[in-house]
Fold these 4 entries.
Entry 1:
Amino acid sequence: MIDKNLTNNFLELVEENKKLIYKVSHMYCNSPTERNDLFQEIVTNLWKGFPQFKGLSKFSTWAYRISINTAISWFRDYSNHRNYIEYTDFVPNMTDDCELDELTDTLFNAIEHLGKIDKAIILLQLDGYSYDDIAEIIGISKTNVATKINRLKLKLKSHLSNN
């Protein structure tokens, strides 16, 4: 039996963080269909892990970690036959308020040329996460985060100025 309070708390937190989930989906998928599939996969994994979420970090930090790990492993499994679950009406869908403006879309197109981990790092940086938070989410040192961000900024600047 599903606990109504747990479900409502989860849905509220996902609703507050759905743009974060959309950004990760957009960053790792080119087609709208794949984005929606990945979005749903992320929400499913958040739901599966939610009972173990202890609140030791912000929900958004925890959700980013789950989202990025799901996106990275999703590609590994994408070509294999996967077991899909049937989604119910209470799982949120991507909506128009998740769509990106033209300038952000241009930046995301440049970011698509980065590696999987680099995409995650720059996305977290753009969302204002501290180097400590990024290091915790990605699982690398704070110094490594700082070095990678500086290099990524140069790559993106070069890519954007050439296009």
Note: Confidence is low (pLDDT under 50) at residues 79-88.
Entry 2:
Amino acid sequence: SLRMLIRHPTSRRHAVRALGALVTNPATEFVIHPLSLLQEVQDRQASDVLMRLLIDGPGQLRVGAAWAVAGKLARNHFDADEISRLESTGLAMLRGNRNPMQRIEAFGIHAAMPTEAHERLALAGLDQDDRLALELCRRHGELARPDDARGVSERLAGRVQESTSSHTSVDADLMLCRLIREALFHVHHERRHQAALLLAASPYRASLADQLLMLAVRSEEAAAVLALTALYQVADAGQRPTLMQLAVAEERPQVRVAALLALGQVVGELAPAEADQLRAAMPDEGQLTQATVHVLGMGGAAARLENGSPTDELAVAARWWRRKSAIIEQNARS
């Protein structure tokens, strides 16, 4: 519905203004999906905002900006000067950067670049691993080697189908396998998101969520982040205890951030003990702090943030959540 509003000439200005008010509020923690709407706007101002967020934005704002930028590249919204700026920005996002979330989004941008820009990037001083990863994304449109992506998705699909009750014997569900592969490995965030939404609406949801969580626990960092990102849409109350454990005890910071954001999407009010556990594990600043604030706000426990002064950032966030209210109703998604 919002995409229709933001594309319509009469409502576009109002929709963009409402979007801007949300994403620029300093207390807003998780705005990946709203920012993706800017891919629909062929407007220099929208492009400038996204470019600034891509360079200087906090972690989650940067992820949302990268999603929108890749979408705008696919729609040919950028001129030659803007493409040149994106080349240098995309290069900075990859060179020497070990943050898996940012690298995944950088690959999505590079895969949507015009051929000439991609060829220049391949010669721009990246190390061999990054050059090979870029070429893999460009050639196959996936974040893993085709054999690896096929093997993982087929194994997951088989386990999910086996553990999902059925009244009749059925053949392997090829659409299930295809959607799992796209949700985990497609280079474009848009396709991963849409595949996860379809899976969340399917009879396989509960079994798939368990398998994705197991994959996240047992995999190396980048694969774990991708599995937890798919869980943003698929996870439910059954995965809540393990997500909580990852959210407070996982040693890999980016996996912990992804687990916190997935936990925030599992609707339902946090118990006082859960809120206290999250608050005690929260560092003083950074992405882990932002992600924890998001979970506390979504779970109706923003009051746990009000111990500081009235101008303290956490107190500001708590007041914002009180005004917006948490999403704790059953069968609701953020």
Note: The chain has 19 helices and no strands.
Entry 3:
Amino acid sequence: MRSMEIDRRRFLKLLAVYGASPWVAQAAGAEALSTGIEKSRSLYLSARKHAGRYEAVVINEQGRDLLVVPMPDRGHSFAIDAVRGRAVVFGRQPGFFAVAFDLAGKRPPQALPVATDRHFFGHGVFSPDGKIMVATENDYEEGRGVLGVYDATEGGAYRRIGEFSTGGIGPHEVVLMPDGRTVCVANGGILTHPDYGKLELNPESMKPSLAYIDLHSGDVLEQVYLAPALHRLSIRHLVIDASGAVWFGCQYTGPAQDRPPLVGRHRRGAQPEMFAGPDETLRDLKNYVGSLALSADGALIATSSPVGGKVVFWDTVTGNCVGQADIFDGCGVAPMVDKGFIVSSGQGVLAHSLPVQDNLQTLASRSDLAWDNHMRRI
């Protein structure tokens, strides 16, 4: 448990930083922040490493920093409550920290508690009324996935008030369904323990699944599994299309020479559909999808592969692959307000991608930045 204690000490140092120094780093103070938010057509959230420091940031379409929140270690993704102007950033798996903050920088950030024998998997979601926030977590001593439930009401202080079983192992992303009451969880199926890092402890008995869970009762309403032949295809990331179908991206843990389909779609009451695309495209993805996003018009899904250096585009109706673009170490992807997607890379690049063009237009590039896996539009 030594690694866990180190992470907790690092987290306590973060609290000390908040109490001892200005917690928001921004170019021109609160007035500039407010003006920048008002003038921006879209705002985005991402985690990054900047000159050796870990940060969560709000940026505009041109990549300008509007808000910077320090973190004790590498971040992953967010739970976003856009209606109330707040978000929670989670530590990367195995994450032993999470920080809630105001998107307009009006209040100092707040550390979330980490339950005993639990760690975060990097994703979460708020209920539509803002009263609760749930986060994917690992009950690593029992080897099961849970949704930690947190009191997100005014004055609730993000107290952890319970947990729900996800019906599987290794839950990663969780998304809110259009009914506002159900969440879909990607149970990746990989058993891990923080004492062993990300070592896969159950490669032969993996059972990746999608679980639909009632956000208030914790009941598993529906659960679907991939075919037995795909049991080493870990379901990781999710996005919901305009029809309410859940699209998912996978990471294959089997032999490197295998070429299973990595992208799928599920409609409630049916079996998952899998999409492979052209042979060359599937090969170039190198068995890894790192993030998904839906275009602003609902017509396209973008899937990124930092391992393969590709962003691939899929028609939401037919499931056909309709294009791709190259970006080295590119993973974060989110819709632009007009057409296409904003894509970020671990090399400090922000780019605009259109599915009809093979090349990306660079929006910003900084050698002192490394963007992390996810870019989220607010």
Note: The radius of gyration is 19 Å.
Entry 4:
Amino acid sequence: MILQLPSVGHCASMPLMNRHPNCGLHNWLIYRKLEARLDRHLRRVEGTIYDLGCGESPYRARMLERGVRYVGIDWERSLHSPEADLLADLNRPLALPDASADAILCISVLEHLRRPELCLAEAARLLKPGGVLLLQVPWQWSLHELPHDWFRYSPVALEGMLSASGFREIDVATLGGFFTMMTLKLNYFSRRFVKGPALLRFLSLLLLLPFWSLGQLLAPLLDQLDRSQAMETSGYFVVAVR
């Protein structure tokens, strides 16, 4: 079998990946896992979807193509979130009507909030009965977007917080096991060495690409040896119904 190294186009070949700006040669595995789960649910969404902490709004085009009303919400309109439709602090109540959304996205956001319980309560308020919340949070992940990195959430914490906010049918799934987690940690760590003049960066990438690619290709297979993936996963993907 010939193992084909991922190229920049590797991300674009995945369900929603060509929409996500953070997918790279060193981390496409976690985005493939996340996007596969999102795609399964987003393709069934109709009506209105709120994207809490939308950032670059990577899912906007996909939703609009399907006739879904997409509302991106973030704390400011900047290089990080140039397409936010509503500027709002997710640590505060939102100026949106009750039961006005059919689905809510909250991807890599909850760890950055000082008042995550309020955000979840607002999500429950905004959803119509039977509406779905699609939530993703990191677990074994490095500090990021400092100083706005406040929390990590275990499955028990996620289930308890969501239940207290009025959600039901809460399903918490892992995004890979021990080997995916370790591969991504090693890849992110080694990526720190890709710096300096253009030629040095190019040579560093040539050396690291086989390492990054082989690890990400093998990790999902090796994860099958991990019988307790929730213990050492990179993160969790949650589906909850209002």
Note: The mean pLDDT is 90.
